[in-house]
Amino acid sequence: MTNPISTDNKKSSPFPSKKRNKSSDILRWFKVARLRKQFLTAILFLLPSLLVFGIFVYYALGFNVYLSFTSWNFLSAEKSFIGFENYVRLFTGTRFWQALANTAYFAAGSVSISIIFGLMLALLLNQKNLPIRGLFRTIIFSPYVTTTAAIALLWMWIFQPQFGLINIILAFFGVQGPRWLSDPKFAMPALIIMEIWRSTGYVMVIFLAGLQNIPGELYEAAEIDGASGFRKFWNITLPLLSPTTFFIVVTSLLNAFSTFDQVQVMTLGGPADATTVLNYFIYEEAFVHFRAGFAAAASTIMFVILLIITIFQLIVSKRWVHY
Questions:
Q1: How far is CA 230 from the centre of its chain?
Q2: How many helices (H) and strands (E) does the chain have?
Q3: CA 37, CA 44: separation in Å to the nearest integer?
Q4: Cα(164)–Cα(159) distance, integer angstroms
Q5: CA–CA separation, 149 and 125 (whole Å)
Q6: Which residue has the higher pLDDT, 127 or 4?
Q7: Is residue 14 predicted with pLDDT exceeding 60?
Q8: Tens digits of residue pLDDT in 209-263
């Protein structure tokens, strides 16, 4: 009489056969080979852009740091190594600190107010019952995609003391308009006003994208609970817009610190260095006074400042950004 138990044990042996192991190894080898081929293909497609990025970013950054330790005037081939002398002159001088203060003033004024106006316009244009919303979005966003130099020329006429639009409006109400671009007290506020007008459309579009990603069911539930419009805005809209707000703050600060065109066109850094921002200060030192090493030191410090600001924002954002 045969033993059925021994037969079943043979059929249900837990140990895989050598043939099965060999087929799984071949399948695994084919998968690895396919992934390796896909990886190499991706590298080949990315290589041109990586080379361009490496040359114009990493090489340029490294060369700039090297120049900051030299004395070079663009005219001679020789670069004299002078150590930290450029940095010592930079920190002991007054123009660098004034340019840094002007940049901080410009960034704080333009970024904060444009975020407020951009959010207000986004909330307004997010209403479904508003007619021709697309036309309003296009009109408000168009200054941001217009050449900054052209916008600066337009605002030079607006700020013109005798025939400028702003002073005409002020005169209508009996107010003596200032000389906007030639008075040190009003030159920087004039640049901030122009930048707010230019960048509010960008902020509005980004906020609109964030508003459209907020589920409408949250507002319906809040209405059922009897929440007012302000409570819905404070407890639903603002927290869920925090990632969008964080993105806008970071990009707007970087754009504000890179301001150059409007200063070059409207004020040339004046009057009395009242509108000399860091970018314009670096430009003057490099291409007007031909102090390339000194300008490289200033741009290196500017890079470090922007890096610290970005890292600080990333750390602080963990407390108020809700994903």
A1: 30
A2: 16, 2
A3: 11
A4: 5
A5: 29
A6: 127
A7: no
A8: 999 888 888 888 988 888 888 898 898 899 899 989 999 999 999 999 999 999 9
Whole-number Å distance between alpha carbons of 322 and 238: 10
Strand, coil or helix: 145? helix
Taking only the tens place, the pLDDT of each residue in 274-318 is: 999 999 999 999 999 999 999 999 999 999 999 998 898 888 877
Cα(195)–Cα(117) distance, integer angstroms: 12
**Whether 86 contacts 261, CB under 8 Å:** no
| Nearby residues of 211 by Cβ (< 8 Å), 6 or more positions away | 122, 123, 126, 237, 241
Write out the two tokens for 114: 């444009």
SS3 for 34?
A: helix
DSSP 81: E
Q: Where are the domains of the chain?
A: 16-67, 92-320
d(CA 94, CA 80): 25
**What is the pTM for the complete model shown?**
0.82
Q: Residue 5: which pLDDT band, with cuts at 50, 70 and 90?
A: very low
CATH number among 3.40.50.1370, 3.30.420.10, 1.10.3720.10, 3.40.630.10, domain 92-320 = 1.10.3720.10
Which stretches does DSSP call E strand in the chain? 70-71, 80-81
Chain CA centroid to CA 90, Å: 26
Cα–Cα distance, 183 to 185 (Å, whole number): 5
